[in-house]
Amino acid sequence: MTDIILASKSKHRQELLKNAGVSFSTQTADIDEREVEAPLIQAGLGGEDVAEVLAIAKATEVSKTNVDAYVIGCDQTLSLEGQLLHKVKNMEEAQRRLLLLSGKKHQPNAAVSLIRNGEVLWSHVEVATITIRKLDPGFIGRHLSTAGEKVLSSVGAYQIEGLGVQLFEKIEGDYFSIIGLPVLPLLAQLRKLNLVE
Predict the structure, then answer these.
(1) Is the pLDDT of residue 2 over 80?
(2) CA atoms of 78 and 57, how far apart (whole Å)
(3) Inter-residue contact 33 to 87 (CB < 8 Å)
(4) Which is the catalytic residue, given 30, 49, 68, 75?
(5) Taking the alpha carbons of 144, 149, 150, 152 in that order, is the dihedral positive or negative?
(6) Residues 71-121: tens digit of each pLDDT
(7) In the predicted model, what is the mean pLDDT of the chain?
(8) Domain for residue 197, yes or no?
(9) Considering the domain boundaries, does residue 67 fall inside one?
């Protein structure tokens, strides 16, 4: 059986693939994401391109030590009014992030790539648009207190698959991509390569 490796420590991405019936192992890429993206941002690239380059970089790094394995790389960026946002570091930053997103539309950009022996076989980016309802600071504080520190694993400081859904007014786009992995296009590609049925 051909090895498939997910180059991600994200439990949500692992769960999505596992639930889809894909047999895989995981290995985290040892790259400095901020270092990789700095020249991209300086060159004026947007969130979609940054996410794709990071997904490819992660899979390529893992591919170096796994000959003949098919390595899946993933990344997600968040764009707000042309600005690229990163994960928050603590609950205080999470509160500021939700205040910033309040009443606005933002775009989660989810990228996935497939690499074998350092060669990019395929890559794809899905962009969703989420409208956050108008939130008052008191509600945000109560919400974060209930949701807990797991919100720190998300660039938006929310999790759509949990209490974060209460923050949304409207969602346009693919649910799986908002979680961080465009599963349907990935499965289609894995079928083309006869890696899944």
Answers:
(1) no
(2) 18
(3) no
(4) 75
(5) positive
(6) 999 999 999 998 999 889 999 999 999 999 999 999 999 999 999 999 999
(7) 94
(8) no
(9) yes
Residue 182 lies in a domain: yes
**What is the predicted pLDDT for the residue at 1?**
55
Q: Which of 192, 197, 194, 182 is nearest to 72 (CA)?
A: 182
**In the chain, how many H helices and how many E strands?**
7, 8
Q: State yes or no: is 75 an active-site residue.
A: yes
Task: Please state whether 173 falls in left (phi above 0), alpha (psi between -120 and 50) or beta.
Answer: left
Could you give the percent of the chain with pLDDT greater than 90?
Answer: 84
**Is residue 163 within 8 Å of 147, Cβ to Cβ?**
yes
Residue 182 is part of which domain span?
Answer: 4-192
To the nearest 10 degrees (0 to 180), the angle between helices 137-147 and 91-101 is 130
Q: What is the pLDDT of residues 120-151, one digit of tens each?
A: 999 999 999 999 999 999 999 999 999 999 99
Contacts of 191 (CB under 8 A, 6+ apart): 197
- Indicate whether 88 belongs to any domain: yes
Measured between alpha carbons, how far is 165 from 178 in angstroms, rounded to an integer?
11
Q: Please list the residues that pair with 106 across neighbouring strands.
A: 130
